[in-house]
Fold these 2 entries.
Entry 1:
Amino acid sequence: TQGDLVYKFMNVECNVNPVFVSNVSCSLKAIDWNKSVVNMDCFLLSQLNPTLRVQVFAKDYTNQYKPFLIDVKVNVCEIIKRRNFLPYGVMFWRILQEFTNANHSCPFSGHLMARNGYMPSSYLPPFPHGFYLFKLEFWNSSTHLFGTVKFFVQVMEMIKLRNKSKTV
Ligand SMILES: *[C@@H]1O[C@H](CO)[C@@H](O)[C@H](O)[C@H]1NC(C)=O
Ligand SMILES: *[C@@H]1O[C@H](CO)[C@@H](O)[C@H](O)[C@H]1NC(C)=O
Ligand SMILES: *[C@@H]1O[C@H](CO)[C@@H](O)[C@H](O)[C@H]1NC(C)=O
Ligand SMILES: *[C@@H]1O[C@H](CO)[C@@H](O)[C@H](O)[C@H]1NC(C)=O
Ligand SMILES: *[C@@H]1O[C@H](CO)[C@@H](O)[C@H](O)[C@H]1NC(C)=O
């Protein structure tokens, strides 16, 4: 049988345009060998009606990240109004909504935060084992990039602990 896949965050990087976004923090916390969670805070200086662009890259044998299958753009406000059903875009937005305070109608303003975020494997298609970069860009319009979040992810079998044998 196929083992349980996990999509484990190895690193996260947040970059914002300081004209539109201030006070950014972005960090990972290790939970166990299978899981680390992301916490993020930022403050929007302008209202945001985001278009989310998601690109996935896979690390190849030369240690370079190469485009991998997914490069989609979705208008988040249209998803919220249920007028837009691009599957991959919707999938990433659903994941974001589970652990951010961006779970209301557009526009977004003020304090945005994410708490204890991770990538539930049940939401994702089964990826081959390896190292990936998930790059999320938040645009207000085609000329205004508010910020970019890069998730460095290892896709692997879940590591299960065997019971320790008693040593007397
Ligand atoms: C950003 O953080 C600084 C220092 O913590 C604080 O004084 C300022 O009010 C914050 N700005 C916003 C827009 O939250
Ligand atoms: C891996 O994750 C599973 C499910 O969350 C957990 O039961 C298990 O203890 C974890 N393994 C290790 C080595 O942390
Ligand atoms: C972002 O879009 C909203 C809604 O269209 C608009 O009110 C705001 O001024 C825009 N912000 C920037 C920086 O373009
Ligand atoms: C958004 O998330 C918060 C915190 O998880 C929750 O209390 C609230 O009910 C959610 N709002 C919507 C519209 O789902
Ligand atoms: C590990 O130990 C727990 C109780 O301590 C037991 O319920 C479980 O079946 C054991 N698992 C294995 C694989 O031996």
Entry 2:
Amino acid sequence: MPVPVHEQPRPRPTDAWAARQRLGHRVQHTPLRHSPSLSRRVGAPVHLKLECLQTTGSFKLRGATNALLALDAAARARGVVTVSTGNHGRALAWAARALGVRAVVCMSHLVPQNKRDAIDALGAEIHISGDSQDAAERTVTRLVQEQGLVRIPPFDDARVIAGQATLGLELLEDLPDLQTVLVPLSGGGLLAGVALAIKAAAPTARLVGVSMAHGCAMHASLAAGRPVQVEEVPSLADSLGGGIGLHNRHTFALVQALVDETLLVSEAEIARGIAHAYFQEQLVVEGAGAVGIAALLAGRVAAPGRTAVVVSGANIDMAQHRQIISAATTT
Ligand SMILES: *Cc1c(COP(=O)(O)O)cnc(C)c1O
């Protein structure tokens, strides 16, 4: 059995408040905007949590910054390393630059070039290896051993989950009587954090994870009752790729305990979500950020009541975005 480098206590709702204090103004309290078009479609008030407007273009800045701020001076001096589908790496690179910490980001060949370029521009070192998150993860392990870098995982980490939970605190403030929350789901750091914050204050709120139809490891793991591996395949929702780790420490148990349901959307539905965000909401949204909108448009969520949809990121390749909106005939 591999022994974890450091055991972390299980994240608690109060960790969200501590993270909020620690983060201060390093992350933005993003707008929650009513969507007339989606409200009409669904027959219930729908609000969009515009995390696509967050600094670095995704919510990942919350968890990455919280984890980095929690390190002591000795750990910061060693530098940090992570595996990423792009947005966590970009967030970590941003936070590391702000604090003067060396950052190394390991990615697979599936990570789009625009995301690699943005990380490079922030001064982080980049390693590209293999065709899966798991392959890139092996490079992380090697760099931890060889160079003594400190690992900052993208989701399965108490400090990261607490950082993402600050998004849930903002939702509670801005929509206190919310009934349904749709959250994009991959490794589950975002969903676990948001659920942790929201269920503590509003236990009857329905928490729904949304992912792409092919390659959602958390969905398959929930069905199996334990973490399982699924094949990683290219998707418009590239930020949702990758496994949850067969030795998952936090997110699987939290999602299993706190989340009411998970649902899946097809590639065509994700494209429709991206187009809807653009034509109806004047928003540029990446595939992973559009899955909640896609689920509503597809009629996948019955009687949601007062609904918040987390629009988790903006970082789409703009040539791909142009193709998608050109091909869209109707929204
Ligand atoms: C990372 C990411 C997600 C999924 O977050 P997890 O914590 O891995 O579930 C969703 N949307 C975007 C834009 C992301 O970058």
